[in-house]
């Protein structure tokens, strides 16, 4: 019940922030460190007629377990409400067979920060590449994501946030015999972040 | 201009890296396919299916795991001999006549030990002493491959260290590359299940086809044309005295011959498949077509079946396809370590991490892991 009461209060604060003066200006920068977990959401095989989309964790689904993710990012504001930058991270998930899947995403990032001040609410879009590896397979592939987050800045510079969203990692194989395994995989990251802005 | 040159170099390097890395060149299956088909380990690491003892009313299966020698009645199992450091059982043979499981360990003594099925205890003394030889390897059919100080290779029955069953030959500088026996029937006597001994000096191979019964056993060298080929698996079909030998290379080439002396005809090449030593290859015929059921290298490779007309060793009518369902439904994400033919077309399949399955090729069915019957 208390949580339900907090929700309108939070929305009022956000509304107030939306119409408040911008905190950032062109040239301001944010450095962030992230750590958290990634939840395998789905694996879609383009060539499969049946069971083309596997949903969920573990054996007979995506085959992956909940994993971990750590990253660093840098963004610079090009307008008071938008920032551009990049992020590089390391992700791992164990498969049902207890073997390690790793991904190293590196991507350009565009963020829109409609709410800013003591509370930042960035909405980010990322596009880039990822090096992925599992067992005897490894490849460089594309990577895209969308993230939303809330960051609380108790002081002027340091902030603490929580973020989630959706990652999309496609696998397009060059060799014909592997093309039946072309796939699109989705992960839901949940991360905590520490940011420094100036 | 110089700055542009540097930027161009960086861009080209990145593009080249992308091209090289994006090929997924060494993969046996798509990356996410491998993950989605991964199976949880069952906690049993099989090494060998030693045999089934049908002499009593309650059949008993004997098998080796990384923890030792086990016995199972099909529903529950118990450990008979525990592995210990420097005393790990590498191979075992079920001698139902002597009511013993004979085994070799890595203790370095070149002696064979035994577990008495009647007393239910380890025999205190070694059952055979091959310590005069430089190399000793117990085979699942009870024969022992040896190499002595003068580089003479021979096969002995484990019960008689003094008289060789068959002498293979003296080959200075050669060592044992592999002993290839047909999948499912490795435990059977040489008179019904021949074997191939591959020797190597590091560059060339000499293959010896060993067959026959008792003192009439023979070791015949394969033709010189095979000396640059490294075989991963071998099977033999014996049809009313006529033999058909099929051999699979590491690179996925299948050779066939109707005589030990050849010629060995290249029947099929699976360019995208590769095989490891002792790869699973089982021959099954429905009366008209022979299926060679193989398991390529890679835990996410499904069974690969090469089919051709019965009793043929040429390229006519050869076809091949992967099998992901029916009897192969659970075997596409496992590593097969051994197999045991219960009857024609019905086998137990032991895997490295995913337990044991019972498959019925004729009925095109498979049990789930550890739900096999004896």
For the record, give the distance between the C-alpha atoms at the N and C termini of chain A, rounded to a whole number.
38 Å
The biggest beta sheet of chain B is recorded as: 5 strands, antiparallel
Q: How would you classify the helix and strand content of chain A by structural class?
A: mainly beta
Q: Write down the overall mean pLDDT of chain B.
A: 90
Number of helices of chain A: 1
CATH class of chain A: Mainly Beta
Inertia-based shape of chain A: elongated
Please bin the fraction of helical residues of chain A. Answer: under 10%
Main sheet properties of chain A: 8 strands, antiparallel, barrel
Question: How much of the residues of chain A is beta strand, in percent?
Answer: over 45%
Identify low-pLDDT runs of chain B. none
C-alpha geometry of chain B: globular
The number of helical runs of chain B is: 2
The structural class of chain B is mainly beta
Number of domains of chain A: 1
| Rg value of chain A | 19 Å
Average pLDDT rating of chain A? 90
Q: Return the string of H and E elements of chain A.
A: HEEEEEEEEE
Walk me through the structure.
The complex is a heterodimer of chains A (198) and B (374). By secondary structure, chain A is mainly β. Chain A is built from 1 helix and 9 strands, in the order H-E-E-E-E-E-E-E-E-E. Helices cover 9% and strands 61% of the residues of chain A. In chain A, strands 1-3-4-5-6-7-8-9 form an 8-stranded antiparallel barrel. Chain A is elongated. The mean pLDDT of chain A is 90. Chain B has a domain at 130-221. Helix content of chain B is 7%, strand content 44%. Chain B is built from 2 helices and 29 strands. The longest helix of chain B has 20 residues, at 2-21. Chain B is globular. Chains A and B meet through strand 6 and strand 7 of A and helix 1 and helix 2 of B.
């Amino acid at each position: 019940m208390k949580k339900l009461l907090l929700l309108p209060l939070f929305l009022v604060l956000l509304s107030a922030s939306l119409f408040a003066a911008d905190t950032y200006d062109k040239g301001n920068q944010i450095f962030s460190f992230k750590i958290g977990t990634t939840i395998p959401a789905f694996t879609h095989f383009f060539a499969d007629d049946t069971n083309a989309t596997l949903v969920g964790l573990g054996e007979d689904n995506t085959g992956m377990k909940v994993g971990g993710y750590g990253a660093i990012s840098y963004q610079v504001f090009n307008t008071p409400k938008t920032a551009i930058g990049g992020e590089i991270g390391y992700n791992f998930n164990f498969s049902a067979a207890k073997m390690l899947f790793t991904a190293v995403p590196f991507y350009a990032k565009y963020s829109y920060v409609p709410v800013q001040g003591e509370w930042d609410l960035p909405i980010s879009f990322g596009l880039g590449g990822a090096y992925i590896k599992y067992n005897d397979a490894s490849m460089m592939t594309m990577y895209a994501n969308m993230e939303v987050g809330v960051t609380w800045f108790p002081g002027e510079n340091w902030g603490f946030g929580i973020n989630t969203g959706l990652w999309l990692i496609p696998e397009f194989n060059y060799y014909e015999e592997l093309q039946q395994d072309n796939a699109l995989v989705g992960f839901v990251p949940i991360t905590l972040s520490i940011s420094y802005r100036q | 201009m110089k700055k542009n040159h540097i930027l161009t170099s960086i861009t080209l390097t990145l593009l080249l890296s992308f091209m090289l890395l994006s090929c997924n060149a060494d993969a046996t299956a798509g990356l996410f396919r491998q993950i989605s088909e991964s199976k949880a380990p069952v906690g049993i690491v099989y090494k060998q299916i030693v045999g089934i003892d049908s002499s009593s009313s309650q059949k008993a299966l004997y098998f080796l795991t990384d923890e030792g020698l086990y016995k199972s009645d099909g529903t529950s199992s118990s450990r008979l001999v525990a592995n210990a450091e420097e005393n790990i059982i590498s191979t075992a043979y079920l001698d139902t006549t002597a009511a013993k499981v004979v085994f070799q360990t890595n203790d370095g003594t070149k002696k064979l030990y035994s577990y008495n099925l009647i007393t239910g205890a380890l025999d205190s003394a070694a059952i055979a002493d091959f310590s005069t030889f430089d190399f000793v390897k117990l085979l699942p059919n009870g024969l022992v491959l040896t190499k002595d100080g003068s580089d003479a290779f021979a096969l002995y029955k484990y019960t008689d260290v003094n008289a060789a069953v068959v002498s293979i030959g003296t080959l200075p500088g050669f060592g044992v590359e592999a002993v290839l026996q047909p999948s499912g029937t490795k435990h059977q006597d040489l008179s019904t299940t021949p074997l191939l001994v591959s020797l190597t000096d590091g560059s060339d191979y000499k293959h010896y086809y060993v067959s026959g019964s008792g003192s009439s056993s023979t070791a015949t060298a394969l033709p010189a044309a095979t000396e640059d080929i490294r075989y991963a698996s071998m099977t033999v079909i014996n049809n009313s005295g006529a033999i058909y030998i099929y051999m699979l290379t590491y690179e996925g080439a299948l050779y066939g011959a109707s005589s030990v002396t050849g010629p060995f005809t290249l029947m099929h090449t699976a360019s995208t498949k590769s095989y490891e030593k002792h790869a699973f290859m089982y021959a099954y015929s429905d009366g008209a077509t022979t299926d060679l059921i193989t398991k390529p290298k890679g835990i996410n490779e499904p069974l690969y079946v090469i089919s051709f007309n019965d009793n043929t060793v040429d390229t006519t009518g050869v076809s091949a396809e992967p099998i992901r369902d029916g009897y192969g439904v659970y075997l596409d994400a496992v590593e097969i370590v051994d197999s045991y033919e219960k009857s024609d077309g019905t086998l137990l399949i032991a895997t490295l991490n995913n337990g044991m399955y019972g498959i019925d090729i004729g009925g095109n069915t498979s049990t789930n892991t550890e739900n096999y019957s004896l």
